[in-house]
Structures are given as structure tokens and as C-alpha cells.
Amino acid sequence: MPHKQERIEKLIKVIYKKWKSAFGISTQEHPDEEAIACFLEDRLSRQEKEEMKAHLVNCDACAEVATLQMKIGIVLEREVFPSMIAYVKDLVRSKEIAPVLDILLKLRDDILEILNTTGDVLVGQELMAVSILRSRRIKEFKDEVLISKDFKDVRVEARIKNKHGKAFSLAVTVRNNTTRELMRDLRVTLFKGNKRIESYLVDSGKVIFEDVLLGRYKVQIASKERKLAFILLDIKR
Fold first, then answer.
1. Separation CA 63–CA 58 (nearest Å)
2. How far apart, in Å, are the Cα atoms of 52 and each of 46, 65, 71, 81?
3. Mutual orientation of helices 60-74 and 33-40 as an angle, nearest 10°?
4. Is 121 helix (H, G, I), strand (E, B) or coil?
5. What is the b/e burial string over 6-34, where b = at least 16 CB atoms within 10 angstroms of the residue's CB?
């Protein structure tokens, strides 16, 4: 068991180092992965915990690292499959590691329930972080839900609409993060596993995937020059 944990921790450090390098994140300004791990394991002093909480609330980058470590912690007892190791190695070798919007939903007959997301959720006219939704006990939405996330260059919006509990439509909108104008000349591709389902070259910054069945999907958003973002979407019954 210690050997498995060491392998996973090593993979995390390699990915995190590459990720920080790709986005120009300074370790002097952000807590490292060890400090975040200590926070998650409740091994920091009271003052350090408060400082970490304040940082995570205002720093999407470190909040994502903390989320990754929590997810890894859940699977530490399981065998590390060769396919997973190969996938991580390919990710590390990639020249571009695009930011990710992670969405996990449950779809019932008339209701969409948010199980987890790294984005902000539109409630009325206000975008709210998931932590605020939890504190207000808001998790269910009638018919559709809009989840948004800002990255370095772009704002990605994903609107998921219920189709009577059997399927859903997914509208993806990409805006310039500075001007909020719709971005043009984008390729938006929907994958299920390694299979490409649909792909569109759009000039309006918006694309809609209709009548998508429940399951796990990846949406890749790319300009002519590079990949801009990914949406990881898992919708269950």
C-alpha cells in the first residue's frame, strides 16, 4: 500500500510541476502541493488554516489543485491501472495543458441536481460559487443550469438543458475574458471516451449539442493556434 501511494504522489508532483510551468505560476506566491495536502489532512496551525482558506477562496488555480488531491485521496486504496499511468504520462508530455471546467450532475424527470463542479452557477442574475450554493442548500434546478468559469484568456459557459430525464442538450459559449465579446473561429468538439461524437467550426463563439444521452463526455475548445479549454461533463440518472 505505501508503494501505491508513493507512485500516485509522484505522478501528482510531476503533473503539478508541469502545470505550474505551463501557466507561469510562481511557487513563491502560491502554496505548494505539500502545504495543500497538509491543509486537507488538518495538519496546519489555526492561523495557517485560515490563511489557506482565504487563498483557496480567491485562487482558482490552487482550488483546482486541492480538488485534484481530494479526488486522488478517495482512490488511494485502489490499484493503479496501467492505462491510468499511461494517460498521465501522455498528459505530462503534452505541450499544452488546457484549463478544465469539471461538471457532475444528476438528471431526473424534471430536475437537474448539481453534485459537483469547479465552475460558478447562475442563480437568477447572480453567478455563485458551489460553496455558496451549499451554504444556502441550493443544488436543484428546474429544466436547465448554466455553469461558467473564467480562465486566463477565456470565459467558458456551459448551459445544460433537461430533455425529460432521458437526454440533455449542451450549449457551449466562449467569450474573451477581458472584453466579454464572443470569440470567433473556434473548433468545438464533443468526445465520449476516445470517440469523437460531434465537431463544429464556429464563427459565433457558441455551439449547441442536441439530444445527448446520459454519460461522461469531454468537450474540447480550440482556436486555430491552440487548445483553449476542456469541459469534463458527467451526467447521471
1. 8
2. 10, 13, 19, 33
3. 60
4. strand
5. eebbebbeebbeebbeeeebeeeebbbbe
How much of the chain is helix, strand and coil, in % rounded to 5?
30, 40, 30
61 in the same domain as 150: no
Q: Which of 64, 93, 122 is the endpoint of a domain? A: 93
Cell digits for 214? 446520459
The letter for the amino acid at 208 is: I
Q: What is the pLDDT of residues 74-133, one digit of tens each?
A: 544 455 556 666 655 555 544 444 589 999 999 887 899 999 999 999 998 899 988 888
The total of other beta-carbon atoms located within 10 Å of residue 200's CB is 14
Looking at the structure, do residues 105 and 180 belong to the same domain, yes or no?
yes
